[in-house]
C-alpha cells in the first residue's frame, strides 16, 4: 500500500512584528490545510527575521554605536521559546524546566501559539525561528506536530559569514531527527539550515538517522541552490523541502534601512531575495520547480484563502515515502554503499542510529 502524504513549502516573508508574522503563518497554514497538506515548511528566520543587508555598524576591529542600537532592535524582535542558552533538549521539549513565578509556560507564548495553530489546522509545521536565550541569538528550526505539539527544536551549528556576528553556534546534539506519523505514514524528519547543507558530514549525520524528509529552510536565493538540494535528495534518497523568503528592499525594517533612506525609496521594488522554494524527490528529480518573485504576503485580500498569491507562493506536492526505499536499490550512503568498515562518523552528543518508529 503506498505511503503517501501531501507536503508544502511556503515562500513567505517576515512581517513588521512577531504577532503579524504569526497571523500570516496561521493564514498560510489554513490555506494549506484546505488543500489537504499534512506538512508545511516555512523559511529560515521566518519568525524573528533575517536582517538582509545589515552590517550592524561593524568592520574588523571597529564598532559604531548605531550598530548596537540595530542589534537591540533585532534582539527584541526575536522569539523567546523558553529554552536555556546551552539548550535543554528533551527537558525543554517535555516541559520539565522550571516555570516563572505566576506563569504556566516559559517564554513569550510563541511555542504555545504554534502548537495551537498546528492542532487546529491538523498540519505539521516546520518553521525557521530567530530564538533568543540569555544574551545570545540562535538561528533555529522547530518541529510542531498537530497531535503531540513541539517534537523538537534545533539550532544552526555553523552560522555563515556575517551571520557569525549576530548568531551564536548551536549544539550538534540538536541535529537529532524526530519521528511522527501523518496520514497513517511514519516519518523520520531532520533539518539542515541554509548553508549547513554544504557541510558533507552534517548531511551524513541526517542520512545516518534515516531521514526520509530532509528540511532545508534557507536564505540562499541563488541559482546554485537548486543543484545542491537535488544532489542532497539523490545522495540521501530522501525528499527535500526547501523554503526561502521573497523580499523587496522596501520591505526591510526601518531599523535596517533608516526611516528616510533615499536608496530604500528609490530602489524599493528591487528584490534582495527572489525566493526559490521547491520540492525535490529522492532520485534528485524536481517535483515542484523553484518559485521566484512571489510571496504569500502579496495577497490582495489576506482573508481570502483562495487568493492567487497564496496559490502561487505555496508549492504543494503529494509524495510517496516508499520512493525513498525504491531509491536504495542502488544507493544507500549509510548502508551498502557506505563502506562503513573504512569510514566512520561520530557527532558529539548525537546518536546516529535511526530513531525507533
UniProtKB/TrEMBL annotation:
Active site per database record: 44 (proton acceptor)
SUPFAM superfamilies to which the protein is assigned, alphabetical: Carbon-nitrogen hydrolase
Pfam short name (any one): CN_hydrolase
Domain called CN hydrolase: residue spans: 5-321
Sample GO molecular function, one term: nitrilase activity
Lineage: superkingdom: Eukaryota
Database matches in Gene3D superfamilies: Carbon-nitrogen hydrolase
Family: Belongs to the carbon-nitrogen hydrolase superfamily. Nitrilase family.
Name of the protein in question: CN hydrolase domain-containing protein
Originating species: Aspergillus aculeatus (strain ATCC 16872 / CBS 172.66 / WB 5094)
Organism ancestry: Eukaryota, Fungi, Dikarya, Ascomycota, Pezizomycotina
Amino acid at each position: 500500500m503506498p505511503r503517501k502524504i501531501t507536503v508544502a513549502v511556503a515562500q513567505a516573508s517576515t512581517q513588521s512584528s512577531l504577532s503579524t508574522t504569526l497571523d500570516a503563518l496561521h493564514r498560510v497554514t489554513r490555506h494549506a490545510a484546505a488543500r489537504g497538506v499534512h506538512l508545511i515548511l516555512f523559511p529560515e528566520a521566518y519568525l524573528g527575521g533575517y536582517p538582509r543587508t545589515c552590517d550592524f555598524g561593524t568592520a574588523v576591529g571597529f564598532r559604531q554605536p548605531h550598530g548596537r542600537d540595530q542589534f537591540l532592535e533585532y534582539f527584541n524582535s526575536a522569539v523567546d521559546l523558553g529554552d536555556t542558552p546551552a539548550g535543554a533538549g528533551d527537558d525543554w521539549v517535555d516541559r520539565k524546566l522550571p516555570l516563572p513565578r505566576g506563569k504556566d509556560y516559559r517564554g513569550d507564548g510563541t511555542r504555545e501559539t504554534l502548537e495551537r495553530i498546528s492542532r487546529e489546522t491538523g498540519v505539521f509545521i516546520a518553521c525557521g525561528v530567530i530564538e533568543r536565550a540569555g544574551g545570545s541569538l540562535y538561528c533555529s528550526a522547530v518541529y510542531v506536530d498537530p497531535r503531540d505539539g513541539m517534537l523538537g527544536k534545533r539550532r544552526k551549528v555553523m552560522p555563515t559569514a556575517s551571520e557569525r556576528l549576530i548568531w551564536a553556534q548551536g549544539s550538534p546534539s540538536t541535529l537529532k531527527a524526530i519521528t511522527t506519523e501523518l496520514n497513517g505514514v511514519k516519518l523520520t524528519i531532520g533539518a539542515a539550515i541554509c548553508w549547513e547543507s554544504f557541510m558533507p558530514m552534517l548531511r551524513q549525520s541526517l542520512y545516518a538517522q534515516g531521514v526520509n524528509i530532509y528540511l532545508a529552510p534557507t536564505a540562499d536565493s541563488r541559482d546554485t541552490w537548486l543543484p545542491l538540494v537535488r544532489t542532497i535528495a539523490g545522495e540521501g534518497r530522501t525528499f527535500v523541502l526547501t523554503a526561502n523568503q521573497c523580499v523587496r528592499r522596501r520591505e526591510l525594517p526601518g531599523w535596517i534601512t533608516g526611516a528616510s533612506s533615499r536608496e530604500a525609496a528609490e530602489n524599493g521594488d528591487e528584490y534582495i531575495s527572489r525566493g526559490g522554494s521547491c520540492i525535490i524527490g529522492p532520485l534528485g528529480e524536481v517535483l515542484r520547480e523553484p518559485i521566484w518573485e512571489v510571496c504569500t504576503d502579496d495577497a490582495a485580500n489576506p482573508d481570502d484563502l483562495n487568493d492567487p498569491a497564496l496559490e502561487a507562493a505555496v508549492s504543494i506536492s503529494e509524495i510517496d515515502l516508499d520512493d525513498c526505499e525504491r531509491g536504495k536499490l542502488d544507493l544507500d550512503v549509510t548502508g551498502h554503499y557506505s563502506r562503513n568498515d573504512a569510514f566512520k562518523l561520530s557527532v558529539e552528543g548525537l546518536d546516529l542510529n535511526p530513531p525507533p518508529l
